[in-house]
Task: structure prediction
Amino acid sequence: MRHRPAGAASGMEQDFRVFVQEFAESLHRTAYLLCGDWHQADDLVQEALAKAYSNWRKVQRADSPSAYVRRILINESRRTWRRNRHSAGQSGAYPADFAQADMSDDVVNRAELIEALQSLTARQRATVVLRFLEGLSERETATILRCSLGTVKSQTSRALVKLKSVLNRGEN
Result:
């Protein structure tokens, strides 16, 4: 039995580290857009990566490992949303954590977008985030969400109507 020196990573561990280095930023951005809170986004990403690591061989065999991990992330986001929806709905406020000193119109617009995204259902929010904020195609979005192309189109359409309504209320 061979022993590895302390600190040496197996090939599997090294592959996972490379994956995390390449996709962590994108996963954090997606998580934030799904939940609207940087701390919760960090928790979602950590949970998703922990699950991905424990199933890394399966993740690597997937057609798209990044899509597989995004799916885990979205599932975690939905679980969290379901657990917390009553408390967030009762307070009427959604957390917004902007750790930037920039107080320009961009920050205001970003806060409005996050609040508007929070008004969507979990599936609509995931669809909009993947399609428009992460730049994925309808087909890629359908694969990640494990739904039909028609479902992506209908969820996108409903979400955009709702977003327009919510964002237009803010202008009045």
The chain is about 75% helix and 0% strand. Residues 65-91 form the longest helix (27 residues). The mean pLDDT is 82. The radius of gyration is 18 Å.
